[in-house]
Amino acid sequence: MADLESALAYARDHQKDFLEEFISFLRIPSVSTLPDHKDDMYRAADWIIKQLESIGFESVAVMPTGGHPVVYGEWMKAGEDAPTILFYGHYDVQPPDPLELWLSEPFEPQLRGDDLFARGASDMKGQIVAHLKAVESLLRTSSLPINMKYLIEGEEEIGSPNLGDFITENENLLSCDLCLNGDSNILAPDKPAITFALRGLAYFEIRLQGAAGDLHSGTFGGAVDNPAIVLCKLIAGMRDETGRVNLLGFYDDVRPLSERERSEMVSMPDEWWMEQSGASVLFGEQGFTTTERATARPTLDVNGMISGFTGKGSKTVLPAQAMAKISMRLVPDQKPERIKDSLEAYLEANAPPTVTWELEDMASSPPAIVERDSDAVHAASRALEAVWGVKPVFQRQGGTVPVVGLVQELLGVDSLMLGFGLPDDNLHAPNEKLHLPNFWRGIETYIRFTCEFGS
Amino acid sequence: MADLESALAYARDHQKDFLEEFISFLRIPSVSTLPDHKDDMYRAADWIIKQLESIGFESVAVMPTGGHPVVYGEWMKAGEDAPTILFYGHYDVQPPDPLELWLSEPFEPQLRGDDLFARGASDMKGQIVAHLKAVESLLRTSSLPINMKYLIEGEEEIGSPNLGDFITENENLLSCDLCLNGDSNILAPDKPAITFALRGLAYFEIRLQGAAGDLHSGTFGGAVDNPAIVLCKLIAGMRDETGRVNLLGFYDDVRPLSERERSEMVSMPDEWWMEQSGASVLFGEQGFTTTERATARPTLDVNGMISGFTGKGSKTVLPAQAMAKISMRLVPDQKPERIKDSLEAYLEANAPPTVTWELEDMASSPPAIVERDSDAVHAASRALEAVWGVKPVFQRQGGTVPVVGLVQELLGVDSLMLGFGLPDDNLHAPNEKLHLPNFWRGIETYIRFTCEFGS
């Protein structure tokens, strides 16, 4: 049987070791989107393998996919009658650029105050290590009351393009009663939270081609159209001044927010959003709170764009090409395929004859809402309250975790989103950090949750 | 006295040597806008120095400026009564990027058919070498009937930021009766031309700042505005669907094209513009021919823009910054300062409170029109007709040559634009080339012009 108190004591006694191991994991620049880091992906996968092996997991393996590999491992000694939890995580991280805005090296973790700064500290190596150390604390002092499987992928930050195939091909291996997804956050250091809804994603690259090659803007300006300006006009037309998306049919499948849902949602004040984002002025659709706009309403954003000469100085070129990465966050019951049709129709209707265009699907994921009245949610709720001293709140999140939709569809199980990042952790941005007190409380919460869920 | 026939014979006999020397000049990557090439700028300046010294020029010197140095040299042995011509050129070249679109290395000249491919071949090392070799042909066989000065700057491609000061400080040294500007072109291999008007330039960089740092588009999309989209909306509003500029007061100072001017202008057919540009559809203001739009009407273009993540893959970032390089080509009597005021007023009026903006002046130059009924134009006309066998046409050019306005203002002399590039030479673009038959005819034209002007 699991001995809660011994495991908690073990975790407290080993904080120094845990932190050192965490730092060694953060030093591996496992950037999934950059081909140069292919070897680092294997190093990161191997780091997890060694952890799982050292605490007695079995069938531990780096499993190939069409892209970066998946790490799998299992501990099935709780027996057939005990429930099985599949812990999901991702060992890949976002690119660190723009590098010049980091105060310390992104892959040389630095502790400043209570925060550990490094790319991937919060998203989500910190959450993986917290769970590994919770399991270690239980296994080194007693046992687990449940069976555990680990599925740690390496492509979350690029939209999990191979995860669906992997889950389909390994349906039996991954079968479970619940997916515990650590890729999540709480609201503030003193505000524990459980996430019950996530937004989906439809991410595209639009490429325009004007003349065959770059031209001299003096010789040809006035004779030939400018694809950068055409791109600007197209993008300008996609969203109105309040952020409402103008694509035809974009809102057709949006499930309206009921008054009950709105009243139950944790809405943070605008001051909080300003503080978290560093924006001095907020922005968005009329008629919704900022929290609603950022978690329960769909959006359209430019994630990147480029055309022509962008170095120092003044090159007088009339560019031949322009590119933008454009993504929409989706809410139930929007479907990425219908959004793509809508964008395609917009480009058909609005791109002038002076350019040709291509639209490439870069990533897509359906939105998700999970069951709030379940054993897992109740166990997590009790664990959080025991550690934090206050009841957790239930929140929707604006981000996308593709695996939630996939495990629902392919394995038929809900996901419990339980992770300990903070909204100001600078995910996907320079100076990403993890608040270490959350790391320690996270380990304790995972220990308590495991005992609660298995009891 | 100058002996025309001997000089022409010398030039024909030395084609092989001339070409080898030209190639050695093209091998120097004298890219003025990139700080890494500072040494190459000195190497290019030195190459000209050695040429001038070897043909007997005096006071030959690399003269410092606030930026890249100027090369000066003179041959004053024609005496006080003979006219003095100041030959203007620039030894700097545009950056070669995008490198992947070059069929051969930009600084490893390659002869394919009659064309020599290299960055700077046409703009304008080829024109400088053609004039140097014309002078050499005369001086090695007889003499010059005129005095010659050379002013070869190294900052034309970045808007000649130090040339005005240099000319002001060296007014006596540079005093002359005419500036011969080789930074020019003819219409086609069988269509010699003299340029009598140039467009001016007002080149800006606009930088927008949204939130303090890049944000996660899932967490903050819907709560915070997107500077890339704001930039697109601002740019989209600067120009209408036909290319007409929407900035308030932009057309106030434009001198209308008279019917006489329109009838005298060489207007190339649209097929020619499509062939030269590689654009399958042309574009621009209603009511003007393409040639008029590209040479005698002002324009606004985006020369480059960037925001957010532009690498491979799908980073879900909500960018904090967005930048665009925007330039206007100006015609008489527009003034760069008034255009800047107009752009600034537009940004003031249209930028939303969700961003802050900066506007930086990158380069500016007034438009220019020169005297068509002069000795210099007549001499050039006769020289071109003798070499090409047809009378030259008079053309306006869409590009900007800042020095033309400067020598008019500071030295009080007109510029004769006489160079031998072609409109399809890929200036400022990959695969720049010089049509070698034009190079040989250019040398002969410069020899004949020198004799005609001095007679």
The CATH architecture designation of the largest domain in chain A is 3-Layer(aba) Sandwich
The major sheet of chain A is characterized as:
6 strands, mixed
Q: Provide the number of structural domains of chain A.
A: 3
Enter the CATH topology name of the largest domain in chain A: Aminopeptidase
> Quick check: average pLDDT of chain A?
95
Supply the CATH class of the largest domain in chain A: Alpha Beta
Q: Which outline of chain A best applies? A: globular
- In order across it, which strands form the biggest sheet of chain A? 1-2-6-3-7-17
Unreliable spans of chain A are none
Q: How many DSSP helices of chain A?
A: 14
Tell me the structural class of chain A. alpha+beta
CATH superfamily of the largest domain in chain A: Zn peptidases
Q: Kindly, what is the distance between the CA atoms of the first and last residues of chain A, rounded to a whole number of angstroms?
A: 10 Å
Q: Helicity level of chain A, as a percent range? A: 25-40%
* Cα Rg of chain A: 23 Å
Q: How large a portion of the residues of chain A is in β-strands, by DSSP E?
A: 15-25%
Biggest interface found: A-B, 103 and 102 residues
Quick summary of this structure?
Chain A has 455 residues and is of the alpha+beta class.
